[in-house]
Design goal:
The chain is of the alpha+beta class. The protein has three helices and ten strands. The chain has one domain.
Amino acid sequence: MLISVINENGLRFNVRLVKKGERYGLVKDGAPCLVHKNKDPLVEFYDARYPIDGEIGQFVARYDRAMLTEDAEVLQKRGLCLHGGVPDWSIDGACMVMVLRALKKAAKCSDVDKRTGSACALKTGHNGDHTDEYGGQW
């Protein structure tokens, strides 16, 4: 899952879900060095202005999905500071609503995948709307 959100300052962040078995982390010899081994996915945030870590931007922060979903109510109101040393690197509450919705849909899609074997892709539309493979917007 990869989605984009634009914070209240107009900065675009790419948000990536890293599932068990997927690679992440520092890129060495053309591939990320680490393999995620836990059941609970990781959620990574990238500053899209700087395509340092491939096409998705400069890596900013990584969280366990459970941490974000457990604090969902607070994050939807206050947002999330991704890095205290860089004022630009924050996600406001409205963007966190979108991120948390995407995480919820991704979890449902994982359940569908296990039962039916079908893929359930989440993608960002050209107009900023987000859709799933079934045409549902969020």
